[in-house]
Amino acid sequence: MGVAVVATILTLAGVLAISVIGKVRNRLSFQSFAEAITELRVSPARWSRLVAAASIAAEVAVLALVLWPGGATVGLAAAVLLFGAFASALAHAVRRGSTAGCHCFGPSETPVAWRHVGRSGFLAAAAAGALVGTVAHPGLSLAGLTPPQFILALALAGVMVTTLVRLDDLTWLFRGAEHAR
Q1: Could you report the per-residue pLDDT of 37-56, keeping only the tens digit for each?
Q2: Where would I find the H helices in 42-146?
């Protein structure tokens, strides 16, 4: 149980870290994310930069909370809400037939698709599962694992982060789905 919860926490942290870095690594990345918010109809153009900054701030806050020893439970609850909101916004865009890029991990021309909704939904569900684990076993923590357990959790998280972040590439590789690169 502890390995699964810690692997999930590390997965969430990895995905959030890569997401934040991809959106703030330069001015163009942030601007592309703000424009995507408008194109996906998350907010009007005049609010897009503010909404983009708030979204990034929320990701940073959740990242800090899930890794903070005393904040994992609150961080996981916040992650459920954050990824649930992302899934909802993306689902509305897909239903409307939007051709805007997801910009989940930086600038992207790959149109938003159900796989992006599924990724956010999966992350929300994983956070919910880890939240149940931390509530049921309050003593679970990164430091509470033995070195072999921590290495296993880290390896599992590495595979999950890579899979989730490179989802568009994997989809293209295995199904030949449209890919903008």
Answers
A1: 888 888 888 998 999 999 99
A2: 48-67, 72-95, 114-136
